[in-house]
Description:
This protein is an alpha+beta fold. The chain folds into 2 domains: 2-71 and 108-304 and 339-362 and 418-476, no CATH class; 72-107 and 311-329, no CATH class. The protein contains 9 helices and 23 strands. The chain is globular, with a radius of gyration of 22 Å.
Amino acid sequence: MRRQLVLICAGAVALVAMAGSAMAAGVPTAQLLCSDKLQNETLLYVNAVQKQVRLSLKNNLKGSDSKCSGGYACQGGANHGKNCTPDAAGEAYCGGGVDSPNNQCNVNAAKGVAGAINKAKGKLRAKLAQFCPNASDFTALGFPNSRCPNAVDADTTADCILQGAIGDFRNAVFGDPAGEILARAATDIVPQGPDPISVCGVTLGSILQIGSESTSGAPAEAGGAQPLLIDGACAGTLCQTKGAGNIGNNLTAPTQTFAGVIPVCLVTVTGDAGNGTPQDGSIDLGSGEQSSFAPISSTVLIGTTCPICDPIAKTCDSGPNSGGKCSNLGGTDIACPPTIAGVPPVIPNPLDLSTEDTTLSVPANNVPGGVTNPLGTFCGSCDIDPTIGCNNDQVCVDNGVCSGAVGSGCCQFGANTGAFGVDTATTITADGVRGPYLPRLATAFCTGLSGDGLVDSSQGLPGPVRLVQQQLNAFEY
């Protein structure tokens, strides 16, 4: 017999199969201890996330601040963890200079709501590494299984648990009955108090899919934090927002993905959305409608395994900051950048997130109108700069990377039909959900070539990208 532990994780349900009583008698004591720690630490993590969601909602509903993160702190280097200001002087203070990839003045995700979630994540990872050191511990407990098909050791099992918000990855659907209940309990009450001065989105999980051929993706854990300032007074319930960080700062910790069996580490940094800010947008406190625009660029490191923050030593396990202090125990960390050798491909993209549904369809072949797409693919790449994705010549013209004009065929479509491993797909949707407190932001767009033939062919690039992100909004007044 087998029994299942139901994990309700901040709006997510994950089922982790555990060893049943029938086999318990044959399981060594060490593995029973592993099973006990696995269940206990998972429950503690789930409770920690739900507590932070409830506490944030409770505070904001009565007009009190809900602290998202700890302001800004140095990430990596000798001044790691020390307070800084998000400007060039702050970067210099951190020891890396302006736009350094190693020592940045970035959001301090070790404090506030994000910090509590990340602390619970780190504890879960550290305990699994301590009490479940052997792959045989997990084999005896029934791993891998249908819910955790890649769980073969402490790291991969922790990955599965912490990504429990994901329900149906192929269709970018969250398994989140608990989150829906919490969101409905908050209803659409306008945050009480004076006009907010900031709103900070703490991720409760996200799904990232890239390319027409790849069936894999990068589900992200909870605990990321993106603070936005309210840009001036709100007009009624509608407030304009702008980013508070530096251009060139890491958007997130490095992202680990794979091209087949080849590891690929993505390092994504913020660009300029206007007036020197890396992000702008709006939020309607009444309807819960929200949008956020932040151009980004991702450096593609092929054959590279992203460094992680060792859960026991609390230091980076590799890369240029190897041995340096870090905070996101057991996971990738802004303080732990990978080593960048040579001149790897850099892919620029928009990050145009919205609570409104987004649809991306295969454009019909229309050469005079700027679409030379006889094979019916989602995306092409611009002829002057193939890292820029497009679905029409006009995109290349607008970006200044078209060798001709609309109708010249400078948006060069390939033969990569379908999306995310479904060859027959002709339309993809990224479904957002409105809500002032628990919105879901989504986007779908075209990305270009990485420049590496193996990655481009195995992922199906140029091709579509879909990002869906469950979020907790924390308001400060």
